[in-house]
Design brief:
Blueprint (H helix, E strand, L loop, with lengths): L3 E2 L13 E8 H7 L2 H4 L3 H8 L4 H22 L8 E3 L5 E3 L6 E6 L3 E7 L4 E7 L6 H8 L2 H7 L4 H22 L13 E3 L2 E6 L2 E9 L5 E8 L3 E6 L1
Parallel strand pairs: 1-12, 2-12
Antiparallel strand pairs: 2-6, 3-4, 5-6, 7-11, 8-9, 9-10, 10-11
Helix pairs in contact: 1-4
Length: about 240
């Protein structure tokens, strides 16, 4: 199913127990559309973001963390700033006092992605720069040998876009399982399906999709558990 197009004003107000929600939006739009009290972050979270040297990085992180808290706060009828996150043994964050919810976020310089799930694990990723992506420089670390062989059959521009899409997908899969880059991405070999990709890994049965955004140089990907009813909104 293709992503829905909408606006921040059309964000859903609830999430059913079998659903996963993915939001992909420009950071600037989040910061301009949501009131300050909905973007407020706990002191430690705000201080961690403030340490980044570049303003674009700080803005993207403020937008991603703020949007995540805004949505979770809406769904749980809580003030966004009051939500308490903790981390598991692998460093993956989760809600400290609420069970059955999973979330993930990603940020580039301009675009951000937020995923929230009540249907098991979720992972999201955003990568910018498709036009200048030197996929051969990272191919051994990220790509399975069969994927490299497939890419080499494409045009030069097609290679860059397809490689960035695979990078995005693998990051989303590994963020869903909680491994991150502790597992070399080249070891993953997602299988194409009619509407995306699937992967059986670390005891999880996952599905994923990827989408190039309106400026064509940015790709977003998301991975959820197979049974999840997934809603994707590009805002």
């Amino acid at each position: 199913m293709p992503p829905e197009l909408g606006a921040i004003a059309s964000l859903p107000q609830s999430l059913n127990i079998n659903e996963s929600l993915i939001l992909v939006v420009k950071a600037a739009d989040v910061l301009s559309a949501l009131p300050a009290e909905r973007l407020a972050l706990p002191r430690n979270e705000a201080e961690r973001i403030h340490r980044y040297k570049k303003e674009d990085d700080r803005r993207a992180r403020r937008a991603a963390h703020g949007l995540l808290r805004h949505c979770l706060g809406t769904f749980l009828s809580r003030a966004p700033e009051s939500l308490v996150f903790t981390r598991d043994a692998k460093g993956r964050p989760f809600l400290a006092d609420v069970e059955g919810w999973d979330f993930n976020l990603s940020h580039g310089r301009r675009w951000i992605a937020v995923g929230i799930s009540r249907a098991g694990r979720i992972g999201v990723d955003v990568q910018e720069g498709a036009d200048s992506f030197d996929w051969k420089a990272v191919s051994r670390a990220y790509l399975h040998k069969d994927e490299i062989a497939t890419l080499q059959k494409l045009s030069a521009s097609g290679q860059s876009r397809a490689a960035l899409q695979l990078w995005c997908l693998k990051e989303a899969f590994l963020k869903a399982t909680g491994e991150g880059l502790s597992t070399p991405p080249y070891r993953l070999y997602p299988r194409p399906t009619e509407d995306g990709w699937s992967l059986s890994h670390q005891g999880y049965e996952l599905k994923a999709a990827a989408h190039f955004l309106s400026d064509a140089s940015c790709c977003a990907a998301w991975a959820t558990e197979l049974a999840a009813v997934t809603r994707v909104m590009v805002l």
